[in-house]
Amino acid sequence: MPLVLVQNPVIVNEGYEWKDIEGEQYHFPNQYKNRCATGAPFVYYRGTRRPDGKRATPEYFGYGHIGEVWRDETISELSPKKDWAWYCAIIDYVPFQSPVPAKIGGAFLERIARNHWSVGIRPLPQDVFDRIMDLAGIAPGGDNESLTLPDLRAVTVREAEGLLLMPRRPTNAGGSTKAPGGRYTRSAAPIGRRAEEIAHRFLVEHSEALGAKNIRWISHEGLTPGWDLQYEDDDGEVIAVEVKGTTGPVFGSIDITVGEWNAALTMANRYWLFLVANCCGMETLIQRMQNPARLLHAGAAELSPVVYRFSVLHQD
User: What predicted TM-score, i.e. pTM, was given to this entire model?
Assistant: First the structure.
């Protein structure tokens, strides 16, 4: 059954600090563990409270699927289970171009009791999920290959003032908090292409300030050297740009292939990551990160194996 994930911008109950990252991960208490099944479709919901202290229309603002689920390791296993918390990765996330009001024509789309609107994860009947998707203009099945994107010429593209790749904290035990993985889903290709379009436009528009000459969209040419875009600097050196995109406002982590990482090691300061947030919206942000391998060597970043590929070379 589909789900509703409540993500309110204002926390009403003091003492709760849920580490949600829109489109990346959802943090929830133990009481919802059995509801949050990998693969389940969901819609995001926010209530009336807004950060400016005003009230607004309750609405659904995006959809996706539940990915991997893992325990919050900052909470001791010796603690009562009622105090445990969990994370789930968000995959296939697509924000609605226009939020869908919770109430249409004087009637709520969800037929639930008044005190259930604050429930963090709640089941959503299939017919209600289908109607929300229809009102959002999403085709049946949610095929992200046919995403309707705004005209790139109308999109505002600017450099982020703060971090788009959010830092993670180590666990109490001294290990590292498990990161969501395996986000190469059906949404990855169209979202990746859109992010590259935005990064290419950014390079062209800021070519003089960046000293960028002979800009090429390498992946568009069918080449896979370990980066997507490249240009030449004032000294004629090739500068590589690997682009990562998310439909959310920030990244919880990014996936890097072996080829991309080897290129980052080889190119060093001539290798850049361009992180593009809200890449399917009207206002996108870019964070430029130089030489990610240096951050790893300095202990300021972590590289975790997400999956290994096994194949048989020959049979005896």
Answer: 0.69
